[in-house]
Each structure stands twice: as C-alpha cells, then as structure tokens.
Amino acid sequence: MASTEALSGRRPPTALPRLRVPAWALVLPPVAALGLVFLHPLALVLWQSVSPEGGGHGFSAYADVFAQAAFRDALRNTVLIAAGSTAGALVLGFALALVIAFVPFPGGRAVGRFVDVFLSFPSFLITLALLFVYGSAGMANGVWTGVTGAASGPFDFLHTPWGVLLAEITYFTPFVMRPLLGAFSRIETAQIEVAASLGAKAPRIVRQVILPEALPALAAGGSLVLVMCLNEFGIVLFTGAKGVTTLPVLVYGKAILDGDYTGACVVAVVNIVLSLALYGLYRMLTTRMDGVRRARA
Amino acid sequence: MTTGIRFDGVTVAYGGTTVLESFGLTVEPGEVMALLGPSGSGKTTALRAVAGFVRPTAGRVFIGDRDVTALPPHRRGIGMVVQQYALFPHMKAGANVAFGLKAHKVPRGEIAARVAEALEMTGMSAYAGRYPRELSGGQQQRVAIARALAIRPGVLLLDEPLSALDARLRSGMLTELARLHRELPDVSMLYVTHDQVEALTLADRIAVMDGGRLQDCGTPQDLYRRPGSAFTASFIGSANLLPVTVTDGGVRLGGTRLDVPAGGAAAGASATLCVRPHLVGLGAGPNALRGTVTEVQWRGATHRLGVDIAGHRVTAELRELRETPPLGTEVTVHFAAHDAVLLPAGADGGEARG
C-alpha cells in the first residue's frame, strides 16, 4: 500500500542536523569582529587620552586641552556651526520638500529623484562648487567686477564660519528632504483638500495639517544632520580651515601637524561624547514622540 | 448665506482628455442632488469643480449668485465630506470640528459652543476627546460630517461618503443623513455616489452621468418609473430592455404585438421597451409573452425567473413561488401597459441590471 506521502506527492520535511554549539557561542564571532575592527581602536584612543606623554595615567591631558583657547574656540565653532547648519537645513529642506511634494510643476518628480542622487555626492564636491560660485575668483565676483568695473568683488565669506555654514546647509539639506518627502507622500491629499474647503489658507494647512504629520521625519532628518555636522571634516577643511577650526579639524591638526597624539585623542573623545549625547537626546525625544503616537493609536 | 449650486456649461479636461463636457445643472437652495454614475462618468470631477480643486477649461460654477469659478477653495464657503473621512489624525474629534471655525476666525468663546452643537447634531458629543484612530469608521464619518457642518456652510459636498462603511453602518448613516437634511433645510447638498440605493433614498433629485456628460435628471420616482434613456433605466434599478418596432397603437417584439402607448413615436421606428422586473407577472395576462425558463433564483422573499423570449432575456422578480417552473419549460409572462416605458432605440435588448 502506498504511503500517504507518496500518494500526495509530498515528502516529509528534512530535519536539520542538531547543533550542539551553545547559543551564546554563536554570538562570539560577530562580537569578536566588532571588537577587533571598532571597539579596540576606540579603546586605544580612550587609553591614549588618559596616557600623558610624561608617563603614568590620568586626566592631566584633558585639563591641558580644556585650558587651551583653541579647544574652546573649536568646541564653540563645532556646536554653533552644527546647530546653525541643522537649523538652516531643516528650514530649507522643509520648504523645498513642501514645494516638491505639494506644488505641481514640470520636472517635479525628476527633482525629487535628484535628491536621492545628491545624497551620494561627496561633501567636498559641494564645497568645490561653492568656490567656483563665491570664491575670490568665482562667478559671483566675476559678474560684480564685470558690471561695476571694480578691481574685486564683495563676496569673500567662504573662509569664514558663514562659508562653512552655507556649504554645510547646501550639502546636508537633502538629508532632511529625503525622509520628509517620504512622510509627505503618506499624507492624504484629501486631508489637505478638506482643510482648504473648511477655509484654511496655505500657511494654516502647512502649520496645522502637514507639519504635525511630518514632525517624526523632521526630527529624524534633523538629528542625522546634526550628528553629521558635528563630525564633518571635509567641508570645514576645504572651506573654512584658514579661519574656522572645529573639533574634527583640531584632531587633525594635533595628530598630523603637531604630533600631539594624546591631545588629539582627548579632542576626539570630547567629539565622541558630544555626538553620543546628542544621539541620546534624539533617542529620548523620538521615544517620547513614539509614546505619544502609540497612545493616540 | 449663499446657497444653491449652478453649473453653467462646465468643461474639465486633463491634458487632451475631457472628463466633464458642457455640464449644466442647477441644485436649488436646500435641495439634495445626487450625482449618480459609474466610475469615470465625471461625477467626482463635477463636485471638485464646485470645491475649487479643478479649474474648468470652459464654463462657470456658481454658489448662490456668486461666480466662484476663479475663487480658491478656502473662499468658497463650502463643507466637504469625503469617502476616506480625511480627519486630521493628530487632533481629537473636537479639535477636528473646531478646525474650520478657527480658520474662519470665529470668536474663541463661540467655538466651543459650535463644536458642541455640531457634535450633538451627529450624535458624537461623547467622543469629542478621542483621536480618530480611537473611533470606528462610522463614528469617524460622523465627526467628518460634524466638521463640515460646524462652519454652517450653504453648500455641503459629499463625495461617496458611505463607500468605506459596511452595509449595516451605511444603512444607518443614510438615515442619519436624511435626518440632517430635514434639520438643515437651507443647506444644498451635492451627493456623489455610484450606489443607486443611496441616491434613491436620500436625493430630492438625481443627475445621472455617463462619459463625462449629464444623461438624465429628475426626481428618484420619475427616473425610476419614467426613465428618459436606456442608460438611466439600467443604472437606476433593474430593467428589462427589449428591442421593439413601433406599430399603429402599440409595438411589436418579434412576432408578438404588445399593447403599449407609443407616445409620439412614428410607426415603423425602432425603440426600446423598458419593463421593471418586479412589474412582470407569471401566467396569462395583458401583453402576454411565451418563453422558456432559463434561470430560477431564490432570493428569500422573491424568486427571480429568467425567461428566454424569442432570443431576448426577460427577468421577472416574483413574490416567493410555492412551486417553481423547471428549467427549460415553457411559461407565459405578462405586464400591464402602464408599467412599460418606450425609450429611444439603442440599448441591448433583454438585459436586466441591478
């Protein structure tokens, strides 16, 4: 008599060979790899920061670095530029994403797709492009001198914090736009139309209908940009290094130019702590917002 | 308060495609007008032209005596309810209802009273503090209606408002909408639907649309009893549509002469005879037709019989039969002369819809 498996054409599932390795052992390889390529170098930086050149271990290097005006300037520049760039990218990104998502214009979809491409551009490319436009021999000054006959143009801000700010806003704005465009695509057009039919003008619709729905995306994009700005090196080096020093540039200066590896490690540790603190703040805010959203659901 | 709607030769085209063509219709103050038609008939486009979300390529739209063709939506003074409710998810029901009042800059002290009044009217007073996600579909739609009514619009636009609800909720909401219409006699309502039951139940008049054009317009009773076209006859209720030839004093279906008023139709002309299935009787009677039973359906209170008569299918909706004729047997069906309507030729014969 044929078996039911043979009649039905099915075969009994093949049992996998039982693994005798304990589950915790399976975690070891990835943890070892992570430790080798990431945690160990990080630990070395931390260790170096508490190992002054005079020998022994302690926090004297921290005291020395914190006492330096250059460090305090770099810390202030880093926070101010990161905060300013993030604010600028949020405002500009929100406005541009609004236009792309809700104002029909020819080529709007192509512009939306270009945002994705823009994210893959290296940061120095944007800086280089700004040099061509606003540099001392750039297009803007060229037009000015051509029109007025003056010997030089008025645009000379690229090597100031404003230049860094402009470059970072230009480069990081698409990082805000991408999650916003995703959020906007999920807003029902009917909500906006009903709001308009109820007498709401565009600013009220943006403020009371669109913005609340876009807040999580805005927070995600903003925090990403903030962390990236805190650690941005290429733009600052390319644009403002002459007059603007940030923590990453200070690390580079101490380690490569001055040979002060302990001081460089101290600044690097401060930079990491700053980034982690801001990331923690972001997680706290998003968790709270998620909690509110879940409570509504 | 301006009220009433008038479409004056409105044409709407997207690119090279005309979706609404020379549309003319007047909705009287306080009237409920249903725009009824299949998908792509242009009914939603017509509603959106009133709301200001599509700009006519020709013609004008009036609300009351105001030409609103070029006005932006926020200046038209309309209330709008859509199929998917479109409540603002981050606002509680009360805040949703207050939205339009704030947009209209109603004094702060008056807003709370008007929100309470609108929620009371829709039976949602107890739910003012809930978020939309905490409400059922029917409750959300009630809040959406309260939100539209709170601004006291002269015109209320309803775009398939019950389509997302199940049959039981839909029936209850239809009753609620009919009650609201009685309580708000000054508000003109334009009600877009593809559901003939909603249109027949709620509307004072129905505008039947197809292919971007107005096909017919009249009271539900007129359109049902005396449809102006085969399309209207088949779209509003079920209809037997039979191709006939007009004779002196009647019509001829194949070789059978039928006693039906021909109106002004000339003898020899082709026409379509419309008889509602529930007005067809089984057995001998006036305008008797012999045919073969091709289908028997039990529908609870009724039996539906399909009978092939000279190659044309005639459907009879009969009160539940004690004994049903077997398939393939010959039967006689009949109808009264005053229950038949003669329509211009053009429809497929013998098909009952609905």
Give the biggest beta sheet of chain A.
none
How many strands appear in the DSSP assignment of chain A?
A: 0
What is the CATH class designation of the largest domain in chain B?
A: Alpha Beta
Class from secondary-structure proportions of chain B: alpha+beta
CATH homologous superfamily (4th level) name of chain A: MetI-like
Shape of chain A: globular
User: Helical residue percent of chain A?
Assistant: over 70%
The DSSP helix count of chain B reads 8
Number of domains of chain A: 1
CATH fold description of chain A: MetI-like fold
CATH topology of the largest domain in chain B: Rossmann fold
Approximately how much beta-strand content do the residues of chain A carry?
A: under 5%
Main interface: chain pair and counts = A-B, 19 and 31 residues
Uncertain segments of chain A of ≥5 residues (pLDDT<50)? 1-9
Q: What oligomeric assembly is this protein in?
A: heterodimer
CATH superfamily of the largest domain in chain B: P-loop containing nucleotide triphosphate hydrolases
Number of strands of chain B: 20
Intertermini distance of chain A = 58 Å
Nearest-integer average pLDDT of chain B:
92
Number of helices of chain A: 13
